[in-house]
Each structure stands twice: as structure tokens, then as C-alpha cells.
Amino acid sequence: MLKKLKDINWNHLYCFYEVAKAKSLKDGIKTLGVASSTASEQIKKLEETVGHKLFFRTHRGLILTKEGERLFNHSRDVFEAGSKLLDDISTTEVGGYSVTVGIEDSVSLSISTEFCSQYWDFYTQFGTVNTARQYEHDQLVEQIKVGAIDWGISLSPPNSKSIDHAKIGSFEFVFCCSKELYDQFLNKEDILRNIPLGQITWDNTLNESILNFLKNQEIQPKEVIFSDHIEYIRKLCERGRCVMGMAENPLDNNENLKTFHVGNPIMMNVYALWPKKNANLISIKKLKELIDSNLENVPGQYKDHSYQIEVSEVNEDLLK
């Protein structure tokens, strides 16, 4: 009976973890470096220890049982933490763990997700990249501090001395509306004076900045509408029902919206934030590598649709 950590054979658990992650005994032993008979015996002994069958064996491969799924979820947390430990103290690139990026909810979401998409290409050979929505800057910083997320993206630099940051880039804030609506007005300022301005409720700082900017341009919106859902505002905008502001993404070719400026361009900065203590981790090294490469210089493999097949080491027998 399992009562203490010493009661479990960690080699057996690690064997189970790698085989379960690969969903194949054959692929799992490539990482383990042991014979298939050895791996099978270790998994069998682990099943005896925990008192549950962990796999269903089918002609398509291995499928986790309900108990196996629960054990795998816990063991993944354990061994990914172990991989981070090795990564921090090793002089070589270890990896072997997934990364979670916290993205502050803001109008610059398309810029942030574009950056994360590029980060995937830098990091994917070491693990997968997940994202988590953060509703405000202070929440994002706190999540980084406690290790709930690996790094984050925000419109503001952190005040905390334990958090490092770097500017991803400066992006122009523009107004946009449907092409059909844009073509009907002689002066673009009148679009903002006569068509409702859509804003996101949780972006209070940005909303106030926009209204102050318009006030300085002597532009008073006839009506302002609010929503918690940026997708809703964007949908209305595409249908000519409102105007909205957005961060201009040089890599985003949206055919349904027409962007325009009034007065001097509004510039905004987007920052990557990460804990100083994790500077040695490959996840942060790859983040810095992407930052240094400049956002507009996309990775060489960015549009290579076969790249993931190569990284995942997909068996050629499965491909056309």
C-alpha cells in the first residue's frame, strides 16, 4: 500500500510517464533508452503497486484508462518540474516541459498572439506552448511571481524587482470600420463623430486614453458602446455598426476592416515579462532569442507547414 513517497518506484513512474506521453511503447522507449521488455515489466510492476490497470492495449496503440489518465496528469506535473530543475542547473539545453504564457486582455491581443505563435517555432522542439488569459496587469505579474505561468505579455512594464521585461515592439493604435462604411464618408473624423465607438469594458486605461486623444482632436463620439467580448465589438465593426480601435499588426491582413488615423498616430508598447530567477531556463532563453530577432523578422520556418511534422518526428509510414 502506498503511504509515503518512498513507497513508489520513481523509475517505474517515469517509464509510465514517457510511454503515456508518446502513446506508444515503441516511441516511449526511444526517450527512455531501455528495451521494450524492460519498459513493459516496469509498467506492469507500477500497475501492481497502484492497484489499477493503466493502459488499454489496442491495435492502434496504447490508450490510458481513467486511472491512467489521472496518474499521467499528476506525473506530468512532477516530471515537467524535474525537467525545469535540470534545465536550470544544466549547461546544455534540456527542455522537456510545456510553457504557459499569460496574455493580458487588451486591444493588442492580435499582436500578443502573433508573438506567441512565433515563439512556438522557437520553443516547440523543447515542449508545447499554452496561453492563459489574464484580466489585468497586476494579476499577470502575480501569476508570474508564484510560477503559475512561465512568462507574460502586457501593455505595461512591471514595477516588481523580481520580474524582468523587454519591449516586444511599438505598435500604432488605429481606428477601424467596415470598408463599406469607410467609403461613404468624406472626412474620416466624421465616422467617429457619427458612428458608435465600441470599447472593451476591461481595458479602462486604454479607453480613457482614447477618449482623451479624441477630445484633444475636438472629436466627440456621438455614442460609446461597451462589451466584455472583443469578438462582439469586432463583429459589429465588420458589419458597419460601430467603429473600434485596434493595434495595427503588420502581419495581419484583415480584408473585412479598413483602418484609418485622425491627428498624430497613437503609439503603444507591448512588453514581455518573465521572472529573473528563471533566466537560465531554455523557455526564457528562447523568448529572449525571439525578442532579439525583432518581431517583424518572422522565423524562417514560419510558413513551413511541414515544420511541426519534422519536430514531432512523425513516422514516414503515416504520411502520403
Describe this structure in words.
This protein has about 325 residues and is α/β, with parallel strands linked by helices. It starts with 9 loop residues before the first helix and ends in a 9-residue tail after the last helix. The protein has helices at about 10-20, 25-30, 35-50, 65-90, 110-125, 135-145, 180-185, 190-195, 205-215, 230-240, 280-295, 305-310; strands at about 55-60, 60-65, 100-105, 130-135, 150-155, 165-180, 195-200, 225, 245, 255-260, 265-275. The protein has 12 helices and 11 strands. α1 crosses α2 (about 25-30) and α5 crosses α11 (about 280-295).
Tell me the layout of helices and strands.
Blueprint: H1 10-22, H2 25-32, H3 36-50, E1 55-58, E2 61-64, H4 66-89, E3 99-104, H5 109-123, E4 129-134, H6 137-145, E5 151-154, E6 163-178, H7 179-183, H8 189-194, E7 197-200, H9 204-216, E8 224-227, H10 230-238, E9 243-247, E10 257-260, E11 266-275, H11 282-293, H12 307-311
Parallel strand pairs: 3-4, 3-5, 7-8, 7-9
Antiparallel strand pairs: 1-2, 5-11, 6-9, 6-10, 6-11
Helix pairs in contact: 1-2, 1-3, 1-4, 5-11
Give a quick set of tags describing it.
D-Maltodextrin-Binding Protein, domain 2, 320 residues, single chain, Arc Repressor Mutant, subunit A, elongated, 3 domains, 12 helices, alpha/beta
